[in-house]
Design brief:
The structure holds 2 protein chains of 2 kinds. By secondary structure, chain A is mostly helical. Chain A has 5 helices and no strands. Chain B contains 3 helices and no strands. The chains are: A mainly alpha, B mainly alpha. At the A-B interface, helix 3 and helix 4 of A face helix 1 and helix 3 of B.
Chain lengths: ~130, ~100
């Protein structure tokens, strides 16, 4: 968590990232950028899913509908923030010639999406009409 | 020499895909804001979503221009990455605001 807070400063400071180590092959930086964009798309899809749940499931009980939508929106926010954080960490590791950082986030996100899917199945089977 | 792996082109297309995803999210947000008749809050949130979408478009366009500017483009600036993420977060916050 402290590491995360320290990284937040790097998000806004290009000079600070560029001061460390050497510039890696531009292709590695571009690959890192594409990975960041892929995570950002995942985040946007989660946010879009949140809006979709709110709009296209009007028959759902209020609590379920708002709960699911908020869970998806929150997952989207988390995914976007972690995307930029992971991108900065990778960029820094490449400049310093270190190993790329490992992450539990993909597993965590997978579990959350699975949970939302199970909740949806449950809602469809049991609580559709409230 | 032209990069045989077409890295800048692939990155440009990744930005395009991401813009498309942002467009879908923004359209859903605007539709959500205008659900059940037009209210003042709805119109304001809808306008905000449009501004956020335009912001995302501008950021993507700027990066695509930078990618095209040189055969070996510089790495993405952290501020640029953070700005795109903040637009995404703002869109989600709009959504949460509409729900509550």
């Amino acid at each position: 968590m402290i590491e995360f807070v320290r990284n937040v400063r790097l998000w806004f400071a290009p000079e600070q990232v560029r001061r460390e180590g050497g510039t890696p092959d531009y292709r590695f930086s571009l690959a890192n950028e594409r990975t960041f964009l892929a995570w950002l798309r995942t985040a946007l899809a989660l946010v879009g899913g949140g809006f979709a749940v709110d709009q296209f499931l009007p028959d759902l009980r209020w609590g379920w509908r708002v709960g699911l939508a908020l869970a998806l929106l929150a997952a989207g926010v988390l995914c976007a923030l972690r995307a930029v954080n992971h991108w900065v960490r990778c960029e820094r590791a490449m400049r310093r010639g270190e190993d790329l950082p490992v992450s539990r986030f993909p597993a965590l996100l997978g579990l959350v999406v699975a949970l939302v899917a199970v909740a949806m199945v449950f809602v469809v089977l049991v609580g559709w009409e409230g | 020499m032209r990069d045989p792996g077409l890295q800048p082109e692939r990155t440009r297309l990744a930005w395009r895909r991401t813009t498309l995803a942002a467009t879908v999210a923004a359209v859903l947000a605007a539709k959500s804001a205008l659900q059940g008749g037009i209210s003042v809050t709805g119109a304001v949130v809808c306008a905000l979503c449009c501004v956020l979408w335009l912001g995302f478009l501008a950021l993507a366009h700027r990066r695509i221009q930078l990618l095209a500017a040189s055969p070996e483009p510089r790495a993405l600036a952290p501020r640029h990455a953070t700005a795109t993420v903040l637009v995404t977060v703002a869109l989600a916050v709009c959504g949460a605001g509409l729900l509550l």
